[in-house]
């Protein structure tokens, strides 16, 4: 009847009470499915994760397992946090794997944006190389200049973290991205990929399989 969100412990009405079958846009249902998977994931890898969905020109956090993580002091999230689309691991994973028409619409909005953090969208060759690399690797990772702040560079704002992220698919659509975040002084991206990418990918796949829509 009810379930508990990881991010803040809030109790939510279960999707089984809804009068209609779940749709791709039912984010509460997505979080309900993802929360237990994310709790199991952080038990395996210790580091926290966020689940984020696309908005018009960014990704937005809708769930995080940080309170359940061994390293709960790593400040990820919170719910509603805006994530840069082209410079973050989460945003890169989404825009690299989403449908072509959606990708072009996103890039058009980002290129027209006045926010300094979206400057990369005005460099199409750089963006294409970035997206090709992400598809080849199968995951997104932060650009070197990204320190967690939407607009500022790592020299101006450095959260001392790094992240990788993978898409969550439902049928042929990417509905969200799941990331893994750690303190970058502890391990490099290749080291974390080798150690934990299989668990992260498996968690994203489990969410995909559990998110059944009409």
Write structural notes for this entry.
The chain is of the alpha+beta class and 214 residues long. The chain has a single domain, classed as 2-Layer Sandwich (Beta-Lactamase), CATH 3.30.450. It contains five helices and eight strands. The strands form two sheets. Strands 5-4-3-8-7-6 form a six-stranded antiparallel beta sheet. Strand 3 and strand 4 (59-64) form a beta hairpin. Helix 1 packs across helix 5 (189-210). The mean pLDDT is 92.
Spatial strand arrangement across the major sheet: 5-4-3-8-7-6
Taken as a percent bin, the fraction of beta residues is 15-25%
Count of alpha and pi helical runs: 5
Provide the structure class.
alpha+beta
Give the assembly state of these chains: single chain
- The chain-level mean pLDDT equals 92
Tell me the overall shape: globular
CATH architecture level-2 label: 2-Layer Sandwich
Helix content: 25-40%
Q: Which fold name corresponds to the CATH topology? A: Beta-Lactamase
The counted number of beta strands is: 8
How would you summarize the topology of this molecule?
Elements: E1 2-4, E2 11-13, H1 27-45, E3 50-54, E4 59-64, E5 82-83, H2 89-97, H3 100-112, H4 124-137, E6 140-141, E7 161-170, E8 173-183, H5 189-210
Antiparallel strand pairs: 1-2, 3-4, 3-8, 4-5, 6-7, 7-8
Which features does this protein show?
single chain, 214 residues, alpha+beta, Beta-Lactamase, six-stranded antiparallel beta sheet, 5 helices, 20% strand, globular
What is shown here, in short?
Helix 1 crosses helix 5. The protein has a single domain, classed as Beta-Lactamase, CATH 3.30.450.40.
